[in-house]
Amino acid sequence: MTASEDLRAGFHLAQFNVGTLRYPLDDPRTADFVAALDPVNALADGAPGFVWRLVEEGQADATGMRPAGADVIINYSVWESPEALWDFVYRTVHLETMRRRREWFERHVEAHLVLWWIPAGYVPTVEEALERLDLLRSQGPSPRAFTFSSSFTAEEAAAHEAAAHEVVDEEGAAGAEPAVL
Amino acid sequence: MEDIEAVALLQDPVRRRLYEFVVGRGREVGRNEAAEAVGVGRTLAAFHLDKLVDGGLLEAGSRRLSGRSGPGAGRPAKVYRRSGVERGVSLPARDYRTVAGLLAGVAERAGLDREVQEAARREGAALAAGAPCGDLDALAKVLEERGYEPVREGGAGEAREAGQGGGGEVLRMRNCPFHAVAEGFPPLVCGMNLALLEGLVEGSEGVRVRMDPRPGSCCVVAEPSKNNED
Predict the structure, then answer these.
(1) Is B72 inside a domain boundary?
(2) Handedness of CA A133, A134, A140, A141 (dihedral sign)
(3) Any idea where the DUF3291 domain is (chain A) (predicted)?
(4) Are B213 and A92 a contacting pair at CB < 8 A?
(5) CB pairs under 8 A between A and B
(6) Is B165 in the A-facing interface, judged by CB distances under 8 Å?
(7) What CATH number does the domain containing B20 carry?
(8) Residue B23 and residue B71 share a domain
């Protein structure tokens, strides 16, 4: 295993995206989307490289959680690599629901999907997902919050974080170590 | 190597047949297999195949063709497959990709998926007016001309095992003619492509198209429509 593969094995990719519903989930105009939820989630759970997805307690998915707004549904998952996530999102029947997104969701004026690296085994929180999305929206892509088209490697994220720590150490304010990159 | 030099490599008829053979197989091809298919000696085939690798048209790898491993398995054989690098020559110089990427980006941000799909459906129907695609064979011919590289796949058993329903054969496309733009905006461009193909088969009772994305190929398949009424 090379140093880079070794580093990569220690990290997983977190994915968080938001979508503003045009109509409520129980509206007939959203019925096809709702019908696709269970099969597509099952497909994700069995997809190569899938690690974790957010599910509301006692529910099959996270569509009832609305931390970003009453009509904004969230999708939150962790993958072994960007390639695994890409292949699931765009190279499975999931693409069929993406193709019809404008029937069910408002167009996004701001970034709606954010990616970042986390230590393998760590279960990320909704709060930090919202922070990462805010970071992407306010400062553009960085190793701490990026997109498919502006991707960063786990190595780049680690280097970025190490550099940030050095600055903190020099200022004598070390100790506030973040749990994730 | 510049694009024009890479493309010029195919002027040699043997080299061109070798290239087309490797591309047509859709998998890794060994030197012996390629030489036999084209009807030249192994050494000559190897020379030309390596020229194509130098030009970035093919990629070389190594594989134990015997399926054995460990001592006695022999040296891995050199194998070839099509390169992911795109080569294009336009005289005079044209740059439609930049235009396509810019327009796709604007359509993406404006949320114009459905408008794009509607335009693509009309375009497909207009294309079909000149070359009707009433069955799988006719559609395959049109798709071949448009660069999709259609191949027939799936006997009855294979499709059923894969959970595809139907049970009949499908036409799968090895090449996405819109690859670079589709990678940048998959839902927009793949949705446009599906609508274009829907337009092509519109009004036909013999064939239908649907999305069935797989890694490394076009996301649409075509199939005889009678297989989908069960």
Answers:
(1) yes
(2) negative
(3) 13-150
(4) yes
(5) 45
(6) no
(7) 1.10.10.10
(8) yes
CATH code for the structural domain at A3-170: 3.30.70.100
**Domain extents for chain A?**
3-170
B221 touches chain A (CB under 8 A): no
**Do residue B215 and residue A91 have CB atoms under 8 angstroms apart?**
yes
Which 3 state secondary structure label does DSSP give B106? helix
Burial class (CB in 10 A: 0-12, 13-18, 19+), B150: buried
Q: What sign does the dihedral A69-A71-A77-A81 (CA atoms) show?
A: negative
The structure tokens listed for A5 are 């593969």
Phi (first) and psi of residue B223, to 5 degrees = -155, 160
The ipTM (two decimal places) reads: 0.85
| Start-to-end Cα distance in chain A | 22
User: What digits encode the pLDDT tens for the residues A85-143?
Assistant: 999 999 999 999 999 999 999 998 899 999 999 999 999 999 999 999 999 999 999 99
